[in-house]
Design brief:
94 residues, single chain, mainly alpha, 71% helix
Length: 94
């Protein structure tokens, strides 16, 4: 599976869980927040210095991290039964 495909599956799992009030145990807020262990995080950390020194590399890291923070907040709301707030976040973010 291509790296971007796996991140898309991750995003779709979050979206499905929130929209359908599906309790996906793999989507714990703590696990979702981990931006280093996911496929894109692993790929980003494996890049050579010539890639890491590119102008937009730090921006990419920042955007990727923010995605995980927002997704984690959404997963927390969902886990806490605040379904309308989680859905509202989903509608605004994804």
């Amino acid at each position: 599976m291509h790296t971007s495909d796996s991140q898309n599956v991750f995003s779709k799992n979050i979206e499905y869980s929130v929209e359908n009030n599906y309790p996906d145990t793999k989507l714990s807020p703590e696990g979702v927040r981990d931006d280093v262990s996911c496929q894109i995080g692993l790929w980003l950390s494996a890049q050579k210095e010539e890639i890491r020194s590119l102008e937009n590399y730090d921006h990419l890291i920042s955007v990727h991290r923010k995605f995980h923070v927002v997704a984690s907040d959404m997963a927390r709301l969902h886990q806490d039964g605040k379904l309308s707030a989680a859905q509202e976040m989903l509608d605004c973010q994804f």
